User: Fold these one by one.
Assistant:
Number 1:
Amino acid sequence: MLSYVLDRLKSSILVLFVVSIITFFVLMIIPGNPAQLILGTDATPEAIAELSSAMGLDKPLYQRYLSWLLDLFKLDMGKSYVYGESVTTLIGRSIPVTFSISIFAMAMAVFIAFLFGMLSAIKKNSIIDYFSRSLMQLGTAIPSFWIGMVLIVYFGVRLKVLPVSGFVPIDRGFADFMKSIFLPSLVLAIGEVGTLLRIVRSSMLDSLKQDYMDMARVKGLSAGTIYIKYALRGALTAPLTIIGMQLAKLAGGTTVVETIFALPGLGRLVLTAVEHRDIVLLQGLVMFITSTVVIVTLIVDILVMFLNPRIKSFHRGE
Amino acid sequence: MKKNISLILGIILVFIIIGIWVLSFVHMPYNPNEMNISNRFLRPGFDSDYILGTDNFGRDILSRIMYGSRNVLLVALVSVTLGSLVGIFLGALAAILKGLTEKIIMRIMDGLMAFPGILLAMMLVAVLERGIKGSIAAISIFMVPVFSRLVYSMILDTENLLYIKAAKSYGSSKGQIFFKHYIPAMLPRLVTQFSSSMGSAVMIETSLSFLGLGIQPPFASWGLMLSEARQFFLVYPYLAVAPGIAIIITVLGFNLMGDGLNDILISRRSNDE
């Protein structure tokens, strides 16, 4: 069991190493001198040369990569030229926004997906099954920016019950905080629920076909015991893995929703960095986001292994 | 019987979009980029000259939707084709050559998969130019690991089957085995994946355009139309209706087609998924 954990840890570190190489070298292709970008077009050549050497831009590429990597370990990601603040500070300030909406969104998606996924597997080909299957398809096909706009018109403007933009930190009142994250989280949840529902339904159908289900029925156990204790438990592995992947994806992939609802999260930082070609900021963000993805995936994989020790031998064959 | 509903519905939706795309070369009611300030914000209606209404510059929304279908389909088709070809090539290379090649290729693919959602595409757009070429390059690279991992695992699954071993034993070259045996065996899954990837490519393209990183104004693209509608849709909600429905029809069409193909092409234990 320990060897599996170590194995996964090793490959996670390797993935992050590859990501750091991709990120550093891809962003080096950006045309133009970063020093020139910071100082503007009317800077003297001397000033540009001075800043370039201060930023280490005159050193060979591999040396710059190594020193960037070393700084990353010290959580020093450099200074954003758009904001004029350290990247670490900027990320630290945005984390609460993005993580709140991601976690709340996943909680909603998990609730809906398990409720409808189980019901539709138990009552296959019933009305509720058709409804769930339509939800699966529509959930993945509706663009989040569109459903976001629709919800803003309906809840924010017609009913005037929810704020349509901005973020209220949790220390300024829990109710206001929840109100400010409800719509963005709902939009994210709609985007994720389709995939999750599909997995819950098919794992549940698989699980219902197992021999131990017949055994449970023969023993005359109540429906609740049969479905929750036996069928659901047998059907947890695949959904858990997907939940982990989705949570990781949301932590870094909420740019569109943050843009619609004007939330100052990580996604907005990414967009600003891309728009202004703020390489230092973008490098830091990409490394932070991918690390989050890799760590969350690792934790979920280990959790799943504890739930289902068969995974261990399966993974080894990979 | 039931399993074919997805396929039929998917094909119908895809045909609707392809029909609109073909029609955009034959006839559009108005010039999609022609501004006419006196006709701005005309509401949609069948008795109106502008069936889907006009936008903030007085441009005909129907013509812009039709014109936008060209960009969306072009970007999606070219980038999924490019991405799948490169992905298939790299995946096959890794699975057939093994050794160091396999390790390097598959680690790079793992690295690319660690970029969540549209982050990779956004990062690539920062490096490349904004517009059609940038979107195509970004989405192609996004598709590469999807296809290479699929091909890689499929080859590993089939390489020990008897007919592959037989082919090896009478001296077929690696290339011959790949084209004569692996490709036909993988085709159903590749076709299915291609269709679903078209759906995700459309979604990424429209997201990039919505964020202002894709096709640039004044050209029409569905994502861009929604982004432009943002300033006005509180007063004129109809602005957001047509582009939204166009995107949903396209993505839903390709996804359903992928699911339907999956059901008929790939024999499975059940049609539950």
Number 2:
Amino acid sequence: MAIKPTPPQSSTSPHPLTFPAHTFAKLAPKTYLNTHLNSAHGPVRPSGRSPTQTRTPTCHTGSLTHAHGSAVVRCGDTAVVCGVRGEILGAEDVPDYKAKTAEEIEEDDEHEMKYADTWERKLRKQKESSEEMARLGLLVPNLELATGCSPTHLPGGPPSTLAQTLSQRILTLLHTSNLLDMKDLRIWSRWPRSGSSSGSHVEEISQQDEPAQDSVKAFWVLYIDILFISLDGNPFDAAWLAVLDALKNTRLPSAWWDRDREMVLCSDVPREAQQLTVYGMPVPLSFGVFESDEEARGKRWVLADMDGFEEGLCRETVTVVVGEGEKVVRIEKEGGVGVGGKDVRGLVELAGQRRTEWLEVSGKEAS
Amino acid sequence: MDRRRVNGPPGGTAPPVYLPPGRTAAAPGRTRGPNEIRKIFLKTGLTPSAAGSAYLELETPSINHSNSLLDRTPALKLTCTVHGPRPLPRSSPFSPRLLLSTRVKFAPFAARQRRGYIPDSGERDLAAHLETALRGILIGGRWPKSGVDVIVTVLEGEEDCPRDALATGNQNGRTGGWGMMSILSGCITVASAALTDAGIDCVDIVTGGIAAIVRQPAAPAQLVLDPCPPDHEEIIAACVIGYLQSRDEVTETWAKGNITALSDGKGTTKMGFDTLIDHAVEAAMAARRVLVEALKEGTEAKIQNSQAKPPGRAMGT
């Protein structure tokens, strides 16, 4: 790296050595960020944002041909592609799987009716759904950083620790946020109800004598592959938003069990394909806590939606995931004690604003 | 089993099987002229964290709005990043020249069948071809003891078989890897754009071109530029080259198929290897026009950015 001191601007006073800003940022990153945050015009980050200001996300869905659902999300200089692809898991391939018949599932529903509170009932139902998904392993998210998205993540070798951590965090959030409904992922032994009146091949099947009992024959397994095109901080938020939009965009072909061939067949008619139900739309917002060493009093700033430069300087991070009605879905915090209970309240509020912003962006794309 | 990734259910899963096979509409075939290549979208600077980057996409065929999920034809989509030149690790031996390493990786959703994360032989093969195409254009002596990484990610690949064969699953033994040849041609162009974006000195910009001898049923063989494999019933031979126009040099050739003794029906010209190369060169020259435009645009955007954003106030220490 060649460092060329810029010529002093004023010749009157002996000017100390000066560097252009980007050189300074490389030589003394901490001082650089500290000076910005302590500026006379109020705290401002090197990117020009205020500490709580986030980068506006953009999204684009359905651009991949071979995926059942896909999304490209860009937040500043971080860009992610997510593709969702459904594959079929036969019920006989699940060890110790006790097939539930339609009656049994309906019975369960009746049992549920006993709960007076509808909201509680709904929650219980969703939770059971997620538990079954986790038990069967129907959601398979994998995050890939080794695409040359940044100089620190080059391909060759196994996935980095960061990539593994992020994949696991996404898997956990998929399960704990009760995002999807099990009913969308079951494949029954009968022809799907919704598509019973279309296509010539349908009659052929309905002419067969009615199956004695309706049972779950197979499941859809969703392979959720997340590829980073470009990485400049805050990979988790961008990856999750891409997953969320790709799942919303996913249309699984209608599928049924063919008794003669003893296999699951799918219809290739696009309008029979079923959209996934996505509940709650939980949206995360990550923060970093920057502490300056110089002041012993321990002045600290909480920076929302960090970029790559800031990420290198913040040890403590907080991720708040907010769902419907500003309910906190998940809080992850690590690396320090800078943010207390009171501060978290403010962060939750910011995450709520982020969610509103995202719903607007993603709604615009969908319409 | 890879324990460092999230694996699917231990029982294994199967890709969906569609019914009814063979219901798809007849392939419309090629709608372009034989000397016309598909429109190329090329843009540099998509990955600001890398030294250089580029994105390439080929024109999407209009058939995607048809009434079957199987009829959708993909459009080639590639991203490329370049990292370097940067110092080699201390442990590596002295090199007087810039060391080039190339990688090509397919995304799991790049093909009709889901692809794994472990590199396979096809990817390594493409990377080796790409390396030969690029090695010759770098002025490597300017960076001793350094290395540069060129990484291409295939977001969406090209298919190998005719459209109706895809729908029935009956590939007629046609697994020839013709799609791989189109992908290589795209890889060469996109990597050249990313290398230029990274500011690495090259003797010229290299572009990929592909030509093929194809035959529709009950028609004589024909020479076409930039073949889209699903459009053609039979591909007899194909050839990809990496071509430097201003020096009239070829850095890479990959030809495949039965090239000998074919006439175009009139019985006058033979479609030999030389003719095939000449046509591939033509395709590369057409791609070069797009590349030059993209590089101009990219450079203009860079200049505008640096003017709009003065590099901050200088801070004294």
